[in-house]
Design goal:
Elements lengths: L15 H12 L24 E2 L2 E6 L7 E5 L4 E2 L6 E8 L10 E3 L4 E5 L4 E11 L9 E11 L10 E6 L4 E4 H5 L7 E3 L4 E3 L3 E5 L4 E5 L4 E11 L5 E11 L7 E2 L2 E7 L4 E5 L12 E2 L7 E6 L4 E4 L13 E5 L4 E10 L5 E10 L12 E2 L6 E2 L5 H6 L6 E7 L2 E7 L2 H10 L7 H10 L5 H6 L7 E7 L3 E6 L4 E6 L9 E2 L1 E10 L2 E2 L7 E9 L9 E6 L5 E3 L3 E3 L5 E8 L3 E9 L2 E10 L3 E6 L5 E5 L3 E3 L2 E5 L4 E3 L7 E2 L5 E3 L4 E4 L3 E11 L2 E12 L6 E4 H7 L13 E3 L17 E6 L4 E7 L6 E2 L5 E2 L3 E4 L5 E3 L1
Length: 779
Amino acid sequence: MLRIMFMLRVQFQPWSLFFLLSCCLLSGCGSDDAADKPVSPGGEVVTILPPIANEALNQVQVSSTADGKAIIDLSQVVVDPQGLPLLLASVKPLDSGSACSKAVINEGGLSYTIDNSSVDVCYYNYTVQNIPDDEQQGLSASSTSTVVVSEYILSGKLPLIAETTDIVTDINVDLVAKLAGDFPAGYHLDYDLLVMGDGTATADSAANIITYSPVAAGVTRVMYSLVSDSGEDAKAGTVDISVSAAADAMPSAKNFEFTTDINPGGKVTIDVTNTGYCGGVSCISDPDGDALQLTDVYAYNAEILPTPHQDPADTLSNTSFDFSAELPGTYDVSYYVSDHNAGFAVGVVRINVVDNSTILKDWDDITLTSNHELYTAPWQQGQADQIHLSYQHLYQEDNAKGSYSIPLFSWLSADALCTTRGMALPSPNQAKKLYDDFSAQSGISVAKNWPVQRAYWTSALDGDSNAKQYDFQTGTLSSAQKNNSAIATCVAVGVLSGLSTTKNQAYILPSDDYGSIKATVTLRDGSPADGQVVYLYSDADTPLVYDQNVGITDTQGELSANITSTKSGDYWVYANYLTQTKKTQITFIDNPLTRVYFELEPERLAMKIDDHTNVAIKAKYLSGTVVDITGVVDLTSDDDAIASGGSDGLVIAHDSGTTFLRAEYTDNGSTQNAALEVVVLAGPKPVRWANHIDATAACAGYGGLPSRGYNYKYVDGGEFGGGVVQNGNAYYWSSTPSTQNNWETLTPSTDRMKLENWGYGMNQGRGANFVCMDKLVQL
């Protein structure tokens, strides 16, 4: 069932809190009765402000038991501006018909408990309420809590996507193209979508495309999930869409990265008109010169507040917000702007929160001098916990330099961890190369302090359930189940060094012609990188078809693909390798239809009355390609009484004479015609009435009359109808005599589909039906 919700969206208005404060300072919030307001010990009227509820995203592992439970803590995403106590008033699934469980609320603990027994992405609306001295004066705020439940929790949050359209234009969001290297291999779009705002959205799981249809100007959020093909993992994603009333007057908002890292708990003010963020120009603009206002800001697990304006009364030109987050990580903040004339735009700001002070680095990455391959240092518990990286187990390793807690991962988790970093698990040969390069220095444990008391995962699979592990103590390779635990290192194998169009200006279909591209991956020393997976794709809605969308580089580090198109034009083609993407342009040219013809030389057909035959019709294009169009055109006749045409090239002769059959075909913007001369010769009709002497003469030269002693059917499979019936039977002459001047006859079967070896002798002077052998086949 497609999960499309239409609801009142509880959203953070960046100007609302500041405006409320300003209003209260200037006019006491418009109240005429101070007696109804709380009073401070000093006698002043105290205005109770609402709490602030931010969007939350939590990741939990699926339970190993059917009755598993997980606690979702919201205490880090809610705050009261006056420091009042808070309680969690309600938590409700945004789709009551989904498989997501109802929440059990811990009001004072600002948390709730859900069932985590199965993989899913669940959306909840939660409400928090503050508790002043007079509880009746308490206010509330609401927001969204997203929970990702999966077997392997690496990065359950996908990068935010921002789209802009107008009220009459549907948009297709191709997730593979939009996410590029962030689209995880082996995942597909789940059919459940959550639409927060106006419009409708549908999911094409096979193509990984979301189609959104707007119905009103404004802002809409579409929440989706990607599910692994194995059903063991899920990731949550969001598409923020701004819808304007008219396409020619839409404001624009750019995506950009705030390049200065901030510390956990630190605050940064971001003004989207700052020209330093977007290449020397403002990140927002309007084609009509309308004043723009920041109207909405969203971010998971972060606190976003309006930046106080110099003029408290001016709330319509605010363009900045304050951002703060307690936990390290990468945050995507979507911001909306409005021109106050039904024009909207949305952009994304990426902010990095980094705490370098607590990350332990007891060993470093290794770069091999022989080929410059980079191997990442194995994780330590402090590092993994710092960025909330989930691991399966820990083990303690003691060596001459200290004692360390080392995270262990399943093969799927390790593979996903490397992929999300733009790298890959090392192949067995690469692991051996790393081992060999340090064997003279007593191994990587002595030389680089790397942990070695547990094996490392490699990229090599061993059947459906197992993968290969490499032991750096012994230099040996072994097989283990994928759900076992091992150390993970990732290798930066190569660089997507090139993507070129190797064959251009190809004819569009139908054609044997094609365009070609070539992607090249090299190692960091410039030598070819073979065995590397490269993805090829183009923009959504392009007419390009690839002979392969994903492939492995050859010994030259190259992957080539042939491309065809149904439309002419210039198109961008993309190659993605890990997190690297390159593009090249390819051009297709028109291929007009130049000729339609009957495959007869000369184009003339001679037939006999009541003959049936089929002719082939061909179409030829400028490229020289010839296509059989027999089954897609209908034949028309200048004189249906002589010969008629039908589908599949069927021609039927009715009477003697000459006529023309014609075919017309249109393709690639061109229409062509063909004509076939049909001459129908005089001759016997299949069933006629005559005495035996005349019937024998009529069939002379046409195979004669059939012999008694066999069964017959028409060559074209037709039935024996239209004959003269005598004494309840339609008798047909044979060429077999019975007695003097008498001849044997045949009789149609009850279903009239054959002549049967049955009848009786009749005098040759009497009349009977007859059909010549050129129309029959002996059974």
